[in-house]
Write a structure and sequence with these properties.
single chain; 229 residues; alpha/beta; 5-stranded parallel β-sheet; globular
Length: 229
């Protein structure tokens, strides 16, 4: 798994990163809520592990911001607050699981594996994708925005599907080349720019607000309130 840990206690963060790495996972770390939100938006992670009480932005606010982006990446909350009301509040914020400190590494790993399996099953059985007013029927290969049908070419459809499955996250050129075009290297072509431009014309031109954003120097992000800059 590719995991993002958002934890303000440096010792706890280093311990968890070392344990997750030793278990064979990739793990990035952020030291506060705002940095965690930026990292989550900039990368494609399989699961997030988020401390609840942090400076600048607490964990629940971080999760709510991601869910408002349309980002459905599974999130496990870590917290010293273990009362039933605290757990319920965490789950209501959009978290998928809640683990009380102190915890065992074995339990943390087991819970993360469950979240990954659950996400994989959901993705394989999902028949519709929804990001803001943009919807995709995977069975009929039908796309609408605000009730208006949008006609896409096969490659445009595949591109949009990938962007919708990673809504709220920055998707890089390398990711698009590999998963949409099947290239494992950059052939130095403008094919992505051309298809992004065509897709943006179809899903954004006659609608407001724009949803397909260009993140300069990084890639592209799909989500409500995108900025075409």
């Amino acid at each position: 798994m590719n995991i993002l840990l958002v934890e303000d206690d440096r010792q706890v963060s280093e311990f968890i990163v070392n344990e997750l790495t030793a278990a064979g996972h990739q793990c990035a770390a952020a030291g506060d809520g705002e940095a965690g939100l930026a990292a989550a938006r900039a990368g494609a992670f399989d699961v997030l592990v988020v401390d609840r009480m942090m400076p600048r932005m607490d964990g629940l606010q971080l999760i709510q911001a991601l869910r408002q982006d349309g980002d459905l990446t599974p999130v496990l909350v870590l917290s010293a607050l273990g009362d039933v009301d605290d757990r319920v509040q965490g789950l209501h914020s959009g978290a998928d699981d809640y683990l009380v400190k102190p915890f065992s590494v074995a339990e943390l790993l087991a819970r993360l594996e469950v979240l990954q399996r659950r996400a994989a099953v959901a993705a394989s059985t999902q028949t519709t994708l929804q990001v803001g007013g943009l919807s995709m029927d995977l069975l009929r290969q039908h796309v609408e925005r605000d009730g208006v049908e949008i006609t896409l070419q096969p490659r445009e459809y595949k591109l949009l599907e990938y962007l919708m499955r990673h809504a709220g996250q920055v998707v890089t050129r390398a990711m698009l080349l590999e998963h949409v075009w099947g290239y494992h290297f950059d052939p130095q072509t403008n094919v992505i720019d051309v298809h992004i431009s065509r897709l943006r014309q179809k899903i954004d031109r006659d609608f407001d607000p724009p949803m397909l954003a260009t993140v300069r120097g990084a890639g592209y992000r799909l989500g409500p309130g995108g900025d075409n800059g």
